[in-house]
Amino acid sequence: MSKIRERFFKEGKLVQIPKKEKMKLQLFDELIQSFDRNREYKEQEVNEVLMGAYPDYAILRRYLVDYGYLRRTDDGSEYQVDTDVTLKFYDDSYYGELKEYVLTKEDEHFSSMPLDALKSCENNDEKNMVLMIQRRQVAGVFILQSGKVVEKYTDNPDALVMFSYSVDSNKQGRGVATDSFRKLDDFVNENYEGINEVVLGVNVRNEAAQYVYRKGGFKNTGRSFVGPVGRQKIMRKEIRS
Q: Model's pTM, two decimal places?
């Protein structure tokens, strides 16, 4: 973000909109921080916020809508920060984004870096990396695995195991986790046959992750096991068709 400010801001004001797509997205990531994602804005209110950053506030407003940062009502009278997430299987076009994925040291202690998680999927048809796409960018990742490993977590043969769930540290606090779990049932139903449960193991010391999973519909099973970094609670989420 400092490069954006050094190149495109002067005395706190935006003097030029970047032409490169990557830098545009970084700019929009910064601009959207001025909006509260829990409230609706009249168009004039949006204009007033953006006016403080750039004289041509209308083009900024249009960009934020077109790039999925702001959602506009059908009649165009109100706007809200768009937190929608799309789930999709990994493909190589996203490799560059995974290389730039950021996790804090604490997050990295409990979850794999995406490239390491991706490597674990190589030559394994039972493991698939899923991307959480928000505003045209990879905002998070996780792995879904079928097969014999399921027996370690549940007696239900119609289950998948979720591994390596994380949200990019630079993209936390904008509803990525909440919306990813809201979309999980539909994603599983569309891509897997006969699955009615997703299970996972979460470190007993990782209370923040446990809170996120509970909020996303996962429930504690009362079972646990010892993993590479300590005891893991087993949690489950029912997948409804």
A: 0.88
